[in-house]
Amino acid sequence: MPDITIHLFREGVSYVAENTVRDTVIYTGVRPTGYHSGNSVVVSIYPHLVADACRKLGKKAEFTYVVTLNDIEPSDYDFDKLFPLGSSILHTSEISHIADRIWKDLSPLRDEHPAVNVEIIRASEFVRRQCFKSIFEDIVMVQ
Question: What's the pTM?
């Protein structure tokens, strides 16, 4: 079972940098409709702050940063199969364009910290991964 924790703001950056190991994965998600500079700041600045904090600690930033693009907007959800039902947006054409913008937003991070692995994935693909299922099950069990 992976260690799933949520860390916010400056203390979160410090905590993540101090506890980052090679197999650390940092996730963020974006609703691609209306992607704007506010999204860009959140998507690109946080992992860069973590990588810079690692460097200040004398550590090489070697984590994976996963950005999920929410291409599904379920009106209902099948919690047994972990699958959206009645999606109102599915595989919107805008997704590829937004992925290109996110790659550009993350280029300074990738240039300065080449050991950081960046992955952009559609939420409709991500929900089929075991890591999502584990996280989802943990969240459901907490409630």
Answer: 0.74
